[in-house]
Amino acid sequence: MLLLSPASTSLLPKPFHNFNARDRTTTTTRFVSPLKISAKAKESSDESTPTIAEIAAIAGGLISTPVIGWSLYTLKTTGCGLPPGPGGSIGALEGVSYLAVLGIVGWSLYTKTKTGSGLPNGPFGLLGAVEGLSFLSLLSILVVFGLQFVQNGSIPGPIPTDQCFG
């Protein structure tokens, strides 16, 4: 039916058809008032106070990712992990750092499957930064451990051996 209509008809309503033009039937000018559109940002209800888990993940992630970087560099250059340190403190920090990064990645993947998005940004965007650094650390772990396995046939165990720190 639209195709059979005369060519002189318009699809626009009458006020829009005569926008800023004089109406041909009268001597007055009709103007169409422009639409007033306003957009407002959503109230920041998402940015509530951070939970204890978020604060712990931020602190743990900011400490763990550099330790893992140091550990992976040491593993790649010497073939061994970090030295045990005084009372085994450095070795313990290394092991806890690996577990912390795996925990943050696991929490992020769980949140992604449940909500469709990753972890919240957290205060000053730190939790989002820690999440990204944790995924980069996991990628680095996979690459360096893979290279170590290809070159040496194994990766060093979690307990220091005589080969590394005899």
TrEMBL record:
Protein name listed in UniProt: Uncharacterized protein
- The organism named in the record is Malus baccata (Siberian crab apple)
What are the entry keywords?
A: Membrane, Transmembrane, Transmembrane helix
Indicate the transmembrane segments per the record: 55-75, 87-110, 122-147
| PANTHER family attached to this UniProt entry | EXPRESSED PROTEIN (PTHR37231:SF2)
